[in-house]
UniProtKB/TrEMBL annotation:
Entry keywords, A to Z: Hydrolase, Signal
GO MF assignments: alkaline phosphatase activity
EC numbers for this chain: 3.1.3.1
Domain of life: Bacteria
Residue ranges of domain PhoD-like phosphatase metallophosphatase in the record: 169-299
Protein name as annotated: Alkaline phosphatase D
UniProt keyword Signal present: yes
PANTHER family: CALCINEURIN-LIKE METALLO-PHOSPHOESTERASE SUPERFAMILY PROTEIN (PTHR33987:SF1)
CDD domains given in the database record: MPP_PhoD
Signal sequence range: 1-20
Organism encoding this protein: Aureibacter tunicatorum
Length: 343
C-alpha cells in the first residue's frame, strides 16, 4: 500500500510539472506561455528583414542565448506579388525548411507579425488586394490554430503573456499594414492601425498588470527625422500611441525592425515615471551598406550596420526591482549595442 501511495504521488508531480511548462490560452484569448528554462532571466529574442534565399548566419547565436520566446518583427520573407498568393506560401515554405530556423523552433516558442515584403507589397497598406489571403498564409507559417481569434480578425495583431517564476511580461504586436491609409500630410484622420485595432490596443494596455510591457511595431515609433517609413509620417497616430503608453505609466519597451540598421532610442514622456526605450533590430540577412548620416535626437549610442538580432533579458535584482538588459547582437553572438534600465 505504501509503494502504491508513493507511485501515485510521483505520477501527480510529473503531471504537475508538465502542466506548468506548457503553453495555454486563457479565457480572454490572450496566449500565455510559462517557461521553465533554468536561466533566472526571462529572455526574449527578436529580429526582422530576413531574405529566405540568402545565408542566415544568426540562428546559432540566437539559440545560444536560450531565448524563452522568438518574435518575428516583419519581413520574415521577401515575397512581393500583386496577384499570386501561392508565391507567398512557397517562400514561407522555403524559410520554414532552413535548418537553423528548425533548430530554434524545436526549443523556443515563435510568434510574429508581418511588414511590407511578407505582406506582399512594398510599403503596402489597406488597399493591397491579397491582404486577407496573405494573412492566412502568415498564420499558417506561425502555426496559429485554425480556431484562433487571429484567423477571423482583420489584421495580424496579437498579444502574448510570458511568465517565468514570479516575473511576467506582456507582448503586444501591432499590425501596421492591414488598416494603414496612404500617407496624407493634409488629412489628420489618416490612420496606421484602424479603429478596431486602436480599440483593441487600448483594452490590452489598460488591462495589463504584468511587470513589463513590450510593444512590437514593424516600423519605428520614436525616431522622427529620417525619410523612411515611420510613425511620424502619421504624426497624430504617433502622438496618440505615445499618450496611451504614458497613461499606462508602467515599464514599457518598444521593439521595431524595417530599417536595415540597428539602434536604440529613448524618449521621456510627460507624467510618466520611466523613460520609454525602443530597440530597432534589422536585418538578419542584409543591412544598409552605405554611409548612414541620419539624425535621430532620441538615439542612445551608435548605429550598427552589421547583421543583427535583438535581445531583452528581464529579471528582478537583489532589491526586488525590475532590471532589464536590452541588447543587439550579431554574428558569433557579438554584442553590438546595449542599454540597461532598472524600474
Amino acid at each position: 500500500m505504501r509503494l502504491l501511495t508513493q507511485a501515485l504521488v510521483l505520477l501527480f508531480l510529473i503531471n504537475l510539472t508538465c502542466f506548468c511548462t506548457s503553453s495555454k490560452s486563457d479565457r480572454s484569448g490572450i496566449n500565455s506561455v510559462e517557461t521553465s528554462k533554468k536561466d533566472s532571466s526571462l529572455t526574449i529574442a527578436f529580429g526582422s528583414c530576413n531574405k529566405q534565399y540568402k545565408p542566415q548566419p544568426l540562428w546559432q547565436p540566437i539559440i545560444s542565448n536560450h531565448p524563452d520566446l522568438w518574435i518575428w518583427l516583419g519581413d520574415i520573407i521577401y515575397s512581393d506579388t500583386e496577384d499570386d498568393p501561392d508565391f507567398i506560401r512557397k517562400n514561407y515554405a522555403k524559410q520554414n525548411k532552413k535548418k537553423g530556423y528548425q533548430a530554434l523552433k524545436s526549443s523556443t516558442k515563435v510568434i510574429g507579425v508581418w511588414d511590407d515584403h511578407d505582406y506582399g507589397q512594398n510599403d503596402g497598406g489597406k488597399y493591397y488586394a491579397l491582404k486577407d489571403s496573405s494573412q492566412q498564409i502568415l498564420l499558417d507559417f506561425l502555426e496559429v490554430p485554425k480556431d484562433s481569434p487571429r484567423r477571423t480578425r482583420k489584421g495580424v495583431y496579437s498579444s502574448e503573456v510570458i511568465q517565468k517564476n514570479s516575473l511576467s511580461v506582456k507582448i503586444i504586436l501591432l499590425d501596421t499594414r492591414y488598416h494603414r491609409d496612404d500617407e496624407d500630410d493634409e488629412n489628420p484622420e489618416t490612420t496606421i492601425l484602424g479603429e478596431e485595432q486602436w480599440k483593441w490596443l487600448k483594452e490590452e494596455i489598460s488591462s495589463s498588470h504584468e511587470n513589463l510591457l513590450i510593444i512590437g511595431s514593424e516600423i519605428q515609433v520614436i525616431p522622427k527625422e529620417h525619410r523612411f517609413e515611420k510613425w511620424e509620417n502619421f504624426p497624430n497616430e504617433r502622438e496618440k500611441l505615445l499618450k496611451l503608453i504614458a497613461t499606462h505609466n508602467k515599464p514599457t519597451i518598444i521593439i521595431s525592425g524595417d530599417r536595415h540598421i540597428a539602434e536604440i532610442s529613448e524618449i521621456k514622456l510627460p507624467k510618466m515615471d520611466f523613460p520609454v526605450l525602443e530597440i530597432t533590430s534589422s536585418g538578419m540577412t542584409h543591412t544598409y551598406i552605405g554611409q548612414v548620416n541620419e539624425t535621430n535626437k532620441y538615439r542612445k549610442g551608435e548605429i550598427s550596420q552589421e547583421l543583427n538580432f535583438g535581445l531583452i533579458k528581464a529579471s528582478f535584482n537583489k532589491e526586488g526591482n525590475l532590471f532589464v538588459d536590452m541588447q543587439v547582437r550579431g554574428k558569433d553572438n557579438k554584442k553590438l549595442l546595449e542599454e540597461t534600465n532598472t524600474y
